[in-house]
Sequence to fold (883 residues):
Amino acid sequence: MKLYSKIHGLRLAEPKVLRIAEEPDRPGDVKAVEALLLEQSTRTNAEGFGLMLSRSTSAGLLQLPPELNYLRTGDIIRVSTNGELSVLYRKNSRFNTMLVTERCNSKCLMCSQPPRDINDDFLIEDWLEAIRLMSPETAELGITGGEPTLRFQGLLDLIAATKEHLPNTALHMLSNGRLFCYLKYAQRIAAIGHRDFVIGIPIYSDVPTIHDFVVQAEKAFEQTLLGILNLARVHQRIEIRFVIHRQTVDRLPQFARFVARNLPFVDHVALMGLEIMGYTRSNLETLWIDPLDFQQQLEAAVFELNWAGLPVSIYNLPLCLLPKPLWRYSRQSISDWKNIYFDECQKCAVQEFCAGFFASAEMKRSRFIRPLAMSDREYAIDIFGEKTLEQATEK
Amino acid sequence: MNSNGAKLAPAFRPVGSFQRNAAYRLLPFKSIRLSTSMHLLTNLAGDYVTIPEEELKSLVQGSIGRDHPIYNDLVGRQFIYEGDPSVSLELLAAQYRTKQSLLSEFTGLHIFVTTLRCDHSCHYCQVSRVSEDRATFDMSKETGAKGVDLMFQSPSKYLKVEFQGGESLLNFEVVRYVVELVQQRKGGRNVQFVIASNLAFLTDEMLSFCAEHDVKFSCSLDGPKSLHNRNRPRPNSDSYEKTIEGIKRVRTKLGADAVSALMTTTADTLEQAEAVIDEYVEQGFHSIFLRWISPFGFAIRSEKKIGYDTERFIDFYKRGLEHTLQLNLQGKCLREEYAAIMLRKILTPYASGYVDLQSPAGLGLSVLVYNYDGNVYASDESRMLAEMGDRRFCLGNVHRHTYEQLFLESSLLETVLDTVVEGMPGCSDCAFSPYCGTDPVYNYATQRDVVGHRPTSSFCRRNMEILRYLFSILEEGSDRSRVLKGWV
Fold:
């Protein structure tokens, strides 16, 4: 699924953030912030919209790039002055994330979205506009980067805006947590008083040197740990994330023990498979380990955390590579727009329960991907429950 | 170079360049020998690592290398650090705060002694009277109400009200009165009720009341019929039959988990570890507490008859634990509670509320006892000592003293300050101390000193041996180790 494209022939005086409308009969005061998307070129009382687009080729109307035909009422797009279109928000997806900056103070070996040291202050402004246009029924919303805390004032504005406009939306931020080694930053986040806000922070080892190596930043381990303790002091909810690759896998069980002993107050621990994007491609030989070859360490870590009473999940790994006792910890974690299944998966009886693959797994994948049988399906239904047809076809 | 020898892309630095320049330094830890070649290292909060003797020597001499397999474990568990210790110290502080988190909750267990009267005349009992004199040995409603007043001055969000005797059911009127009063006044607090009883006087009316107010029972079951009845004499010699019948009635009316059982080890018990444990399985219990005899009251006076030395108890305990483990491996579900308490301290970062293994001592801070006559004691053992004529740990009386007076004007604070295990002679150097505790009343009763003398203390000897035994099983990494982990 493409999230970026270009509208040919469009020139704007300044960029616009617009919500898609498919019916022209809209209140006058919202038309300016909406893009009317028509099936055909029936130009009827459509005055006042911020933009008008057609799904088909037609004289007199700009055409929506066909690869974005999935856009529906309530989705939100950004259009640049020369017609570049990016999809900011899809109303029916549970994977909407707000990228607030591409800058970062770490340089993780396996970063799927390598940082760029550019001025992208406008991003926060766009998101503040977009939040006002989002559906109040939005269940979940993410904040990501880069490192979001590097735009700290903007970040505070963003969290406050979601609290005000989306009071029922769960907010989740990915951060390396390093800036929270200053207590005042943790206190300012807590002062907003968002009711459903979790910060997901990666720790890649119980040994400082290894963690610093993985994130390519000296003292990062110290800063992140102090940051986590400061966030705990202000009662901020925390998730710990661990990406499994060749440089981290050896101490995965020790990492689990470290979290259970030192950070028993965290809300959730996510153990995650590798996404073959960005820096991971440059360092593939250093990082790659076939997931089948680390199941023993993964099992030890999951059981240690579970035994300690910490909620634990496995992200980004397909069921055919996980021993059955680990299935119940597996989540369908990959964002819908980049989630794929392989040809083998079409014959698999548990595909609807499986996390599947990042689209980037086309480049490097396990040797052991295989379709599972109907008997496995019964086991999956025992764990995950019978899916409704709607849930099963959502993806 | 990295762990698989592959090259990083040029823009990235190798792992070696993130190595701290400083040589490692030690963080605070203590060590103790577990076996001829293995040592246990523990930190203040109870995290631990086992290490062979040669490596321990290198470690303290500063010569253990970064490439040694145990090196990273020592770093990851905060036994050593490189460069800046600030994070390690913060993590150790957080661990210690977690371990001591119950201290700020203050007193959670409140024992009401509703009567000293009892139909049993057990040799080991410290306090009971076979007497019909209600006026002298029963708690009055006024005294119960004053006890409830004091209990609600504790800041604890979790309160446990335990009724003790004598035979507490012989004064059920006050049990009922206190439960109803607490229910009216508890507000948002979480309160549990337990009646310690021999169940011989249990009526249907009592059971209905207990069902209504979610009151649970704790009874004595010393083992198979012959042993139980020998330990616990009563007219007709039918204590066992009464107890078993009572257990069934409680379970029928209140549910399978509404009654727990406690055993006391006497000299006769020592030969019958397996039979005692089998009796618990037979009666459908999932938990047993292999409990030694307290050196109080009649237990000391009749020491020749029922007493035994510590070594024999330790042998009994190990045999019992072994039998319990074997039952678990055969698919039975039975947990030994004393081991479970210690395992929680060893394997989790959390605090344990068990009164006899606290630092500072649990006296008053974990438990208060409101005696039938209104006297307030710092623990159940404190009142037993008083029954022997020594009121050292009597804090005052519910009718004459305020909450503040009980805590601040009694000998309590002085005793508590003397019982911080981290600073006690013999304990301050002991690697087992994070899992242990102290019982100043025991020390005082046996050694005339609340701090006590460790080398001659059977409390110390027993706990050290049990801990050593538990660690030896944990270190096996066997099915038995997994059973122990499952008890936590």
About this structure: Chain A has three domains: 4-82, 97-315, 336-395. Chain A has a mean pLDDT of 94. The longest helix of chain A spans residues 152-165. The two ends of chain A are 11 Å apart (CA to CA).
